Amino acid sequence: MARFNGLDFYNIDAQLTDEERMVRDTVREWVSDQVIPIIEEHCRNGTFPHELVPQMAEMGLLGVNIEGYDCAGMSNVAYGLVCQELERGDSGIRSFASVQGSLCMFPIYKHGSEEQRLKYLPKMASGEFIGCFGLTEPDFGSNPGGMLTTAVDDGDSYVLNGAKMWITNGTIADLAIVWAKLDGIIRGFIVEKDDGGFTAPEMHGKHSLKASVTSELVFQDCRIPKDRILPNVRGLKGPFSCLNNARFGISWGAVGSAMACFDSARNYVGERIQFDKPLASFQLVQNKLAYMLREITKAQLLALHLGRMKDDGTMIPEHVSLAKMNNVDIALEIARMSRDMHGANGILDEYPVMRHMANLESVKTYEGTHDIHNLILGRWITGIPAFE
Ligand code: TGC
Ligand code: FAD
């Protein structure tokens, strides 16, 4: 597989630490060698490449920015760079790492008991346990506060009833972080795959994120021991604290997809001859390449600054909303533009662009849709929530 040199017009590399550069380069090479050669086949078949999980674990990519418990304990910028490189391969691979690290390991680390941390985190870091995160319900997507899933205190156990939908990793997960209302208050619960009354059927028919498993989670009088509640958080800030991390990773990941689409377009127009000249020699084509370079460079700077703010503790959730929204938006625009520049070849899976384009439609929707992030910023600007 040809070496991918990235795109670094503003020499952003110089702002990274040696460790951050090393992690980025290691994951970049791994994606070129192990992900890109197999991903189209998995996409075509609608299968998740399980075989990559132990390798990701080996490189410390599961729980990158978590301290202790056999996790890598690296900076948030390093975590972002990992997401960027994984998503250059495929959004589904970055999704897997996001869900495992930000949406499942993080709540156990932040809101769990010490016993829960010791029981789950090392096995999740090693890839032995896979997690999923159940917040969205069939009738409550953008407004998860309305959720209908309940937990009832029944002596030495909790009994869960309800359903979650669109859950990444659900069918392959060993444990699910499930958000449900206990006495009307949203709480987090750890449900294990063999708990009675719990099933996780896979959802089929996706045209996007095909190399990722998406599932329903169904709870029918699902009984779990009392020590599986996350003791240290109550209310929507529980799941939202996890989303801050995962949305942060997406802001970087989208840059990876955009770089892959730019790279493919640049190579293609350099070689494709029309009207006796390479496409790259036409002004309209150069205009598109310049747009891509401009937007990717801005997105890289946004992601890096966000990462440094997260590392020094000054980042607020609205900062993440702006970056998630912007970077996914420009990545999707670049993917569509790149597809167009490949002409008919752009619809073939010989090139990665249509896959990235289709994936990014999901990325635009999950972890807060584009417009929900607009509304979050609108509330920050005006002080007036316009969600309802
Ligand atoms: P709101 O009144 O705004 O807040 C309720 C409570 O939560 C607190 N809070 C936050 N805390 C931490 N971080 C944040 N980002 C927070 N945002 C809000 C807030 O302070 C309040 O706390 P308290 O103590 O006062 O109770 O809640 P709302 O119901 O009005 O929500 C508004 C809205 C629309 C912004 C919110 O519901 C939202 O973000 N909706 C989007 C839903 C979403 O993002 N779902 C994602 C599901 S998971 C997923 O998609 C995984 S994909 C994984 C993959 O494959 O990569
Ligand atoms: P809706 O909320 O019905 O929104 C539909 C449209 O209406 C959107 O354009 C939205 O912006 C707009 N809209 C909604 N409310 C407003 C408003 N107040 N004002 C203006 N416009 C509005 N969830 C999980 O919990 N865990 C997961 O692991 C997970 N993985 C996912 C994987 C994939 C592949 C996908 C596609 C989704 C996943 N999700 C997951 C669900 C995802 O978070 C939701 O799809 C998302 O939050 C949007 O909810 P919805 O699909 O119900 O859309």
Spell out the key features of this protein.
single chain, Butyryl-CoA Dehydrogenase, subunit A, domain 2, Butyryl-CoA Dehydrogenase, subunit A, domain 3, 9 strands, 10 helices, binds flavin-adenine dinucleotide, alpha+beta, 3 domains, binds 3-thiaglutaryl-CoA, Butyryl-Coa Dehydrogenase, subunit A, domain 1, 7-stranded mixed sheet, 51% helix, two-stranded antiparallel sheet, 388 residues
- Share of β-strand residues: 5-15%
What does the overall shape look like?
globular
CATH hierarchy, class of the largest domain? Mainly Alpha
Tell me the CATH superfamily of the largest domain: Butyryl-CoA Dehydrogenase, subunit A, domain 3
Give the termini separation: 50 Å
Helix content: 40-55%
Detailed description of the structure:
This protein has 388 residues and is an alpha+beta fold. It folds into three domains: 12-125, Acyl-CoA dehydrogenase/oxidase, N-terminal domain (Butyryl-Coa Dehydrogenase, subunit A, domain 1, Orthogonal Bundle), CATH 1.10.540; 131-228, Butyryl-CoA Dehydrogenase, subunit A, domain 2; 237-382, Butyryl-CoA Dehydrogenase, subunit A, domain 3 (Up-down Bundle), CATH 1.20.140.10. Helix content is 51%, strand content 14%. It has helices at 18-45, 53-58, 76-89, 91-111, 114-125, 237-271, 283-312, 317-341, 353-365, 370-382, and strands at 131-134, 150-154, 157-168, 175-182, 185-192, 198-199, 214-225, 273-274, 277-278. The longest helix has 35 residues, at 237-271. Bound molecules: 3-thiaglutaryl-CoA (TGC) and flavin-adenine dinucleotide (FAD).
